[in-house]
Amino acid sequence: MARTTTEPPQGEQLAAISNMVVSIYADYLGRGPTKARTYATDGVVTCLLEDTLTRAEQSLIASGRSSAVLEVRTSLQETMREELMKAMENLTEQPVRAMISGTQLEPDVTTQVFVLDESRRGGISRPERQAA
Which phi and psi angles does 9 have, rounded to 5°? Predict the structure, then answer.
């Protein structure tokens, strides 16, 4: 007999994580990324964000101030750290052991990588398998 679960399918949970990260970015930057995809495997959740730069940041890059943009981005990612980690823990029902952020300006791609503590309850839900 198949077990039933109230957990959302993996795709829905991954979409919820993408939406959460985009929303937090928008709160801190005034706009969120226009593209976001989330992948999860073996206790690692990776959010790939594209089109993240604000118009002001794009202007700084165009005038040769890329290092200033990267410095500000690093500071903002540190400022968002606690909120991102708590939101991830709420969505996955697992503690976040580590969070790693990275930004590349050309192309405009940012990553948020979360390492979960899989020894704890919850987790990225997987489709239920029927016992044979």
Answer: -60, 160
d(C-alpha 52, C-alpha 86), whole Å: 22
Mean pLDDT score, 83-111: 96
Tell me the residue type at 6.
Answer: T
Q: How far apart are CA 110 and CA 101, in angstroms?
A: 7
Q: Name the pLDDT band for 123 (thresholds 50, 70, 90).
A: low
Give 93's DSSP letter: S
pLDDT at 119: 77
pLDDT score of 115 more than 80: yes
| 10-116 CATH, one of 3.30.450, 3.40.50, 1.10.260, 3.30.980 | 3.30.980
